[in-house]
Design goal:
By secondary structure, the chain is α/β, with parallel strands linked by helices. 43% of the residues lie in helices and 17% in strands.
């Protein structure tokens, strides 16, 4: 069956594409604009598979999206394409509104016009739509939306459009909201890759505020597994929260990254601790995120395939072994400046 995965050259998307390509019943189309965060090198090992097609295009181009859907009449859509970096959303919120809201609307409208019986529109979202937690408690599927950054607001809006299309046009939809992902191929501007690269190069490791901001970390391959599980077994119209059950204060996570990266580099334990540098906090910084996984584990029997210890060691080893991947991204960014 034909399945369209948007943003499939990005970090999470590339792992989702590879997960579905393992199943020969899917004919996978990967639609990606190849912005700064999209990278076909993430998919080099599957580029020539017979059930894989790459489509270069922009989800904000309504005519292009309409023609693509009319041509292929995709059975399912998994929508991951998004601007996702909070700091960038603060400096340029209009880009986030255009891609995350209008892009989602284009996809919904074209899917509505072309989908067949049994097809699904699956929107992949974030826990940041729920805002910030206090010292206790977890986000559930019924938590109220209270987005605090332009990025979170754009994703909240796209979630609402998906639900509106389900209610107004009876479109078969699914939504999932995930916690912070980590793992191989993550763009180097994100927190964990930034820390690893700083440790490797003996540069300052920037930590916002007092370092006590807390996030729930989900290994990206576990997220890809959850997405496939939800598409195949989720109940139409439902939302599923996907978390790592793995909360870390930023300062404590950095210390783990220092310990494991120094070990991998053959350095003395704690050698990179002096690199920790506290920097001015960013606006609208949510104090804590944490997700209750009970629904997806109970109803769909999904569970994590990796412990945090396994995931973080695999992540560090990948970055240490793929410096050429990082250098290529850096060179590409410089060439666009």
């Amino acid at each position: 069956m034909k399945i369209l995965i948007t943003g499939g050259a990005g970090f999470i998307g590339s792992h989702v594409v590879k997960r579905f390509l393992k199943d020969s019943s899917y004919d996978v189309f990967n639609l990606d604009k190849l912005t700064y965060a999209g990278n076909l090198n993430n998919l080099s090992e599957i580029a020539n598979k017979g059930n894989y097609t790459f489509v270069h295009g922009d989800i904000t181009d309504a005519k292009f999206i309409q023609n693509l859907f009319e041509q292929h009449k995709f059975k399912h859509v998994i929508h991951l394409a998004a601007e996702s970096h909070v700091d960038r959303s603060i400096s340029d919120p209009f880009v986030f509104a255009k891609t995350n809201i209008l892009g989602t609307l284009n996809l919904l409208h074209s899917f509505k016009a072309t989908h067949s019986s049994g097809g699904l529109f699956y929107h992949v979202s974030t826990d940041e739509v729920y805002g910030s937690l206090g010292e206790t408690g977890l986000f559930t599927e019924s938590s109220p939306y209270q987005p605090n950054s332009p990025y979170a607001a754009s994703k909240a809006s796209s979630d609402h459009f998906v639900r509106a299309y389900a209610e107004t046009y009876k479109l078969p939809v699914l939504i999932s909201n995930c916690s912070n992902n980590y793992g191989p191929n993550q763009f180097p501007e994100k927190f964990i890759p930034v820390c690893i690269e700083a440790i490797v190069n003996n540069k300052n490791i920037p930590i916002y505020g007092d370092g006590n901001y807390t996030r729930d970390w989900l290994y990206v391959e576990d997220h890809a597994h959850a997405i496939k599980t939800i598409l195949e077994h989720g109940k139409i119209g439902e939302t599923y929260n996907i978390g790592g059950l793995n909360e870390w204060k930023n300062i404590d996570l950095v210390k783990v990254l220092i310990r494991e990266t120094d070990k991998a580099l053959g350095r003395p334990e704690g050698a990179s601790l002096p690199l920790i540098t506290f920097v001015k906090d960013r606006p609208g910084h949510d104090k804590r995120y944490a997700i209750d996984n009970a629904k997806i584990m109970r109803e769909l029997h999904w569970k994590h395939e990796h412990t945090f210890e396994e995931g973080i060691v695999k992540t560090i080893d990948w970055y240490l072994s793929n410096q050429a991947w990082i250098d290529a991204i850096r060179d590409r960014l410089i060439s666009k400046q």
